Amino acid sequence: MMLVPLLPLLSLGAVLAEAGPSRLPDSTAAARLALIKHNREGLLGSRLCDDDGVANLDNLQTAVSVASSKYRAGAKRVYSRTGHKLPGFSLDAFETWSKAALPPVRALLGAVGLKEKRQQATLTNYLDGSYWGGQIAIGTPPQYFDVDFDTGSSDTWVPGEGTSGYTTFNTSASSTARNASRNFAEVYGDGSLVVGPVFQDSISVAGVTAKEAWFSPINTMGASFEGSPVDGIVGLGFESLSNMGGTPFFQTLVEQGVVPNSVFSFALGEGDEGELYLGGSDSSKYTGELVSTPVVHEGYWMVQGSAGVGGYTTSKDANMIIDTGTTLVVAPPNEAAKFFAQVRGAKAFQNGYYSYPCNISFVAELEFAGVKYTIPEKYLNLGLTAKGSNLCVAGIVGQDVGIDAWVVGDVFLRSVYSVFDAGRKTVGFATLA
Ligand SMILES: *[C@@H]1O[C@H](CO)[C@@H](O)[C@H](O)[C@H]1NC(C)=O
Ligand SMILES: *[C@@H]1O[C@H](CO)[C@@H](O)[C@H](O)[C@H]1NC(C)=O
Ligand SMILES: *[C@@H]1O[C@H](CO)[C@@H](O)[C@H](O)[C@H]1NC(C)=O
Question: What distance in angstroms lies between residue 81's CA and the mean position of ligand 1's atoms?
Fold first, then answer.
């Protein structure tokens, strides 16, 4: 099952805030939030690989479909909100694809009517395999949720009334909740639908609070969602990617001057514990120089970078979307082919994936702002192609996502410290401490 935004069902009024320079009161403090890595079953580890070390082929297929849906839908949203076409995005191609991929909207709504209120309200496969969950508090007094922080989307939502079985947000129990009297709706990759009222309330993360922050306590889910360890999502992308029609959470913190600057940073790393730092970068988590590269198209955190194998560049100055909400590194199919042509014994496997002999070593590199970063084999290797095989499946995969860009997810991001500056509009990387 996939659960990923395909298209906004309702045309929401665009509420575009002017992004002024951030003026900062002295009392601001950065916030440090511990993140825990989960897989879908709520266990630690990667569910892209089974217990016997074999890559989970169903989940691999889901992962590429999810990425494809997520980026096509996002590019459409950026286009509807700003008129800007992300590189390679074609509205005609989107319409053709979405007609083929989705049943008519009326049929979807009918299905929702039947299933409404009977579904458990967690989010499964919104992301494609790994979740870095952390706690947020919404309302007065606070109600707590474990959410995933996703730089590849821009809306915040948690389960609300009408969803059962999990933590739900009770709007009447919060004295600061304000009903915006409009709806938020998203259709997901498997045809399921999520709908909820748009609300504003206080949202706190690790002691910093955004007042009147936009979110949706969702009340309708059109498919079954079982086993997710996170309750909801906090999107950390730009406002132009938002489907809700309000300033995203982090930009709200910045506008209200509660964080010292417009920077947030991730340390994901090898273990199952990471850190999200709001309001700067945590110098105890990285060493050496932090090197930044400009965002080239706003909406996603899209920068330019190069890819290569063992010092040989296979893709130069490609668009690369930095996405904590995606597990894999997804390359345009021809770029993936050029990359794996440099890996001895590598060949196309299935669904855009490549296999390579497990006993060879090769150095996979991404380069940003002139600095090369190596992706360690432990993150790149998704497991064996089959039991007893001596071929492994690589975490760099070729897939058309509807725009001319790579998607750089956790396979890479675990190996670096990453810094997102929403004011200067840059992404920086440094070596993890
Ligand atoms: C929601 O909060 C209100 C006010 O505190 C309370 O009366 C109601 O029982 C709560 N609803 C649920 C489902 O807990
Ligand atoms: C929010 O407002 C709308 C329209 O004013 C109303 O229909 C809806 O029931 C309200 N939602 C909640 C959760 O109070
Ligand atoms: C890797 O394994 C293959 C097949 O078992 C073998 O032919 C090859 O020599 C091995 N290569 C290395 C570098 O060990």
Answer: 37
Residue 359 CB–ligand 3 contact under 6 Å: yes
Task: Tell me the pLDDT tens digit for each residue of 214-257.
Answer: 999 988 765 434 445 567 889 999 999 998 888 999 999 999 99
Calculate how far, in angstroms, residue 242's C-alpha sits from the geometric centre of ligand 1. Answer: 30
Q: Alpha helix (H) ranges present in 37-56?
A: none
Beta bridge partners of 320: 303, 406
Q: Closest Cα to residue 332, out of 7, 55, 68, 70?
A: 68
23-38 pLDDT, tens digit each? 334 346 788 888 876 6
172: Cβ below 6 Å to ligand 1? yes
Distance (Å, rounded) from C-alpha 198 to C-alpha 216? 5
The token pair that represents 362 in the structure block? 């090769």
Decide if 200 contacts 184 (C-beta within 8 A).
no
Cβ(162) – ligand 2 distance below 6 Å: no
Domain range list for the chain: 28-47+86-278
3-state class of 76 per DSSP? helix
CATH number (2.102.10.10, 2.40.70.10, 1.10.455.10, 3.40.190.10) of 28-47+86-278 reads 2.40.70.10
Please state whether beta strands 178-187 and 193-205 pair in parallel, antiparallel, or not at all (unpaired): antiparallel
User: Among 355, 359, 360, 389, which residue has the most ligand 3 atoms within 8 Å of its CB, making it the best to mutate?
Assistant: 359
Distance (angstroms) between ligand 3 centre and the Cα of 359 equals: 6
CA proximity to 121, closest of 282, 8, 237, 230: 230
